[in-house]
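Entry for the shared binder. Reason: the reviewer on the internal report wants the predicted structure included alongside the sequence.
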Amino acid sequence: MKAIIWTKYGPADGLKLQEVEKPTPKPDEILIKVHATTVTAGDCEMRRLQLPLGLSFPMRLYTGFLQPKRLRILGQELAGEVVQVGERVTNYQVGDQVFGTTGFGFGAYAEYICLPATHDDAQGALVEMPTNLTFAEAAAVPTAGLEALHYMRKAKIGPGKYVLIIGGGGSIGTFSIQLAKYFGAEVTGVDSTEKLDMMRSLGADHVIDYTREDYVKSSETYDVIIDVVGKHSVAQRLKLLKKNGIYFLAYAKPSHILLGIWMSLVSSKKLNIESSNQTREDLLSLKKLVEEGDLKPVIDRCFPLEQVPEAHRYVESGGKMGNVCITLDPGEQY
């Protein structure tokens, strides 16, 4: 089968299209023909091993000190079709269309992947696809959707809440806007000029163009801030948070941990640095919202498998709207 092999840490040219052996499912696994996957900012950080919270060195020890050896195929979410089941598998059958996350094993940049028929948190989550999405659209839902849903539940988003989403035009941001509106909040999205109309179309009540307005100096305050950018001073942005408010930071540095500890001692504001648990139950919740028309993935563009390096470079350019997909089906529409 064809797969994109991670050959070195660093630039995207270390991702190489190669022929590798097609996997065979173990008794408790299913073999999935991958129809679509995605490229996220997290995938790019993993490729470079420029990870948040000082994880780069321990990850290098795990994957291979000089070059990747233990993990050879990246890609953390997918949509596809079950083509073979292990002898102990009873909850899937050949022909089922599924979507979900691969967990810590990654492996979605390939024509086929074996995944457990039942998952724990480290193994990701997998369920049958929403009936109203293409494979490319379905592949874009799990990772960012689960993160956004986690923020909503943790902050108890509901009517009367004022939510600021920094990076509202990205993958997590576009789901966060829709979910915050679904739960009844008043939503303000922050991003660049070309993404403002898109954020409005998703339901944002207010939009801010950070290239033209220094929103950090605004007198407005918010109950919840979801920051999926994290490039500039978090300490300054905390001024926008109301008393007893929660600031969610998707991409954190070690200094942010210290800031969070300090805030817990001296302030009623909370700096929350954590990721979602990727559970089947939460993925089923997202599927239900999608099928009922309350949630939809935003697709910027799709690349074929052989152009995964180009897709990584595009994501790293910072200009994407929503999600970037990899489709393994010629002519796949999104």
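Summary line for the report: The first helix runs from residue 41 to 48.
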